[in-house]
């Protein structure tokens, strides 16, 4: 049966530009364009789904890459479904892992989920967000329903997944329950009749399973939109609380501001692309200005003011700037500074000072700390046994020696 084709208006074309900005991949573009056209013609908003497992209580800026895209879709008039994976959290998502992830307990899930939506509402419009828990339809499935669901997807297709394939070849255990995760995530799309599902690039396989299961259940398949994974403050690993390179959206404004200012000048443009609400043309103008001699630190300040202001208000953002500048009042932060990586953390401050080249010996490092001549992110160091954990730090010795140090 031939589906009706709807006219692609200028408004639909503009919506496509908004949706695809900064995305990694949209599958399938032509299908989604027709979904938008149908929505405009019928007045029925699309159902846009994002599922998040409450594996930790905090949401960081990496999560907001996808949340920002959801907000844009809300502003285009569509229904956003913020799905908390309370059921799938008990299975554990194996995406990108080389070993079985231990499932969370019900108590851990409930504790984390209680703060998730409140934090997500700092980005989404709560009045236009449908919040759901996938235990609503997963719990009632029971053993019979689970077996029937499992019959709709093959082991061969499951083994196309890269992390499963690698683990199988390496002889690393794959538990049967891990196969259930993408099935259950896909079944969420069936239960919610999703028109589109969003996720990070590491979720592409799971999102495609949802698309296939919808076909199996006689539904129109969802389109999928994958967003890039935001690098953390170290500029290397994806942002993650476990890696210590994250910026939480509920962190104090001063702390958030300082972390944003600690990122490298190169990484700053990645953050502009994925986090800023400025137009791409505006960002291009900023890039050109830096290439023509503008201090990149000033452009980074604009980014920090925008991001901190979004979550804490403009007054708090300005206070964050004042606090940041006051911490470096004894010397101006240079435009360029050595960038050092210490692969194994935590690491002592005296070793960091030596390996960064800021001092020539251990005794000089110790003397500078004793004389209050060392700062980490603007704060004076008085403890010679201070340990730096994973993250990126601006280390200052005296008034003129600086280094950006990343602890791995």
TrEMBL record:
Localization, UniProt: Cytoplasm
Domain RNA-binding S4 residue range list: 349-392
InterPro entries: aa-tRNA-synth_I_CS (IPR001412), aa-tRNA-synth_Ic (IPR002305), Rossmann-like_a/b/a_fold (IPR014729), S4_RNA-bd (IPR002942), S4_RNA-bd_sf (IPR036986), Tyr-tRNA-ligase (IPR002307), Tyr-tRNA-ligase_bac-type (IPR024088), Tyr-tRNA-ligase_bac_2 (IPR024108)
Catalytic activity: tRNA(Tyr) + L-tyrosine + ATP = L-tyrosyl-tRNA(Tyr) + AMP + diphosphate + H(+)
Cellular-component GO terms for this entry: cytosol
Claim: Ligase is one of the keywords in the record: yes
Keyword Cell membrane: no
Role description: Catalyzes the attachment of tyrosine to tRNA(Tyr) in a two-step reaction: tyrosine is first activated by ATP to form Tyr-AMP and then transferred to the acceptor end of tRNA(Tyr).
Name the UniProt record assigns to this protein: Tyrosine--tRNA ligase
Species annotation: Orrella marina
Underlying gene: tyrS
């Amino acid at each position: 049966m031939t589906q009706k084709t709807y006219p692609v208006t200028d408004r639909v074309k503009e919506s496509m530009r908004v949706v695809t900005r900064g995305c990694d991949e949209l599958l399938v573009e032509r299908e989604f364009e027709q979904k938008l056209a149908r929505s405009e013609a019928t007045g029925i908003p699309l159902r846009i789904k994002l599922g998040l497992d409450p594996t930790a209580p905090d949401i960081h800026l990496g999560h907001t890459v996808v949340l920002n895209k959801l907000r844009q879709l809300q502003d285009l008039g569509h229904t956003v479904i913020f799905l908390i994976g309370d059921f799938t959290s008990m299975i554990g998502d194996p995406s990108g892992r080389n070993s079985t992830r231990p499932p969370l307990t019900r108590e851990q899930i409930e504790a984390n989920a209680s703060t998730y939506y409140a934090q997500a509402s700092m980005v989404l419009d709560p009045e236009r967000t449908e919040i759901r828990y996938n235990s609503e339809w997963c719990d009632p499935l029971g053993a019979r329903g689970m077996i029937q669901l499992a019959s709709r997807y093959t082991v061969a297709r499951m083994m196309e997944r890269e992390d499963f394939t690698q683990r199988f070849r390496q002889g690393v255990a794959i538990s049967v329950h891990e196969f259930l995760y993408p099935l259950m995530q896909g079944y969420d799309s069936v239960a919610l009749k999703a028109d589109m599902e969003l996720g990070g690039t590491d979720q592409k396989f799971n999102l495609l399973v949802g698309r296939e299961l919808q076909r199996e259940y006689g539904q129109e398949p969802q389109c999928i939109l994958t967003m890039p994974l935001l690098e953390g403050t170290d500029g290397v690993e994806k942002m993650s609380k476990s890696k210590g390179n994250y910026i939480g959206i509920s962190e104090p404004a001063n702390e958030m501001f300082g972390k944003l200012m600690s990122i490298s000048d190169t990484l700053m443009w990645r953050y502009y692309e994925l986090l800023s609400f400025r137009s791409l043309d505006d960002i291009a103008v900023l890039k050109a200005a830096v290439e023509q001699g503008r201090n990149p630190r000033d452009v980074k300040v604009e980014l920090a003011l925008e991001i901190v202001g979004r979550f804490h208000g403009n007054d708090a953002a300005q206070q964050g700037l004042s606090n940041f500048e006051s911490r470096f009042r004894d010397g101006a932060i240079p435009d360029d500074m050595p960038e050092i990586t210490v692969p194994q953390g935590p690491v002592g401050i005296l070793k960091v000072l030596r390996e960064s080249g800021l001092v020539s010996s251990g005794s000089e490092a110790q003397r500078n700390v004793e004389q209050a001549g060392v700062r980490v992110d603007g704060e004076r160091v008085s403890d010679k046994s201070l340990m730096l954990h994973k993250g990126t730090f601006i280390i200052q010795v005296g008034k003129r020696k600086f280094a950006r140090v990343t602890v791995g």
